[in-house]
Amino acid sequence: MPSTVALFVDYENVPDVQLAENWINFARSKGNLVIQNAYTRQWKNSPSDGSLLKRLGFRLISAIFNIKNSVDCKCMYDCLGVVESESSPDIFIIVTGDGDYAHLLNILKSHRKQTIIFARRGSGSKKLSRIAHEFYFVDEVDNYLLAA
After folding, report:
1. What is the pLDDT of residues 94-119, one digit of tens each?
2. How many domains does the chain have?
């Protein structure tokens, strides 16, 4: 049975929607893509990017809470909810670079989930690169697809 894959995009940290199709292809190279979520404060502030992501099958999630790092909090909260579900995916791909996700990766790994991070060059947390099973730069996703 093929692995199941969840793709979570922190648009606040990596607003490179031109690469979204490559992230999807990468995720599909790992298994059956069952979740595609993209997070920002409010999608109405990025209508063209939101339209493209929606056309590609992403569920657009606005984190409009009045707290610091609301996008990070919402994305992590949703990941935790998914990992606790009966149909939890085998692989979690998170497009971010924010070191705040380190604790989430440890929790996912404790549930025996494979973790993959995509981050922008220069903004990727070294902590994430050490914790994740795989760590890639978003601007080189084409190279990883060719290698897969």
Report:
1. 999 888 899 999 999 999 999 999 98
2. 1
Residue 104, classed as helix, strand or coil, is helix
C-alpha 30, offset from chain centre: 14
pLDDT at 120 over 80: yes
What distances in angstroms separate CA 109 from CA 61, 81, 140, one per listed residue?
24, 15, 25
* Residue whose structure tokens are 């697809």: 145
Single-letter amino acid, residue 47: P
In this prediction the pTM is: 0.91
CATH number for the domain harbouring residue 15: 3.40.50.1010
Structure tokens at 21: 């199709």
- List C-alpha distances in Å: 74 to 47, 106, 139: 20, 17, 25
Rounded Cα gap, residues 40 and 61, in angstroms: 7
Structural domain range at position 130? 4-147
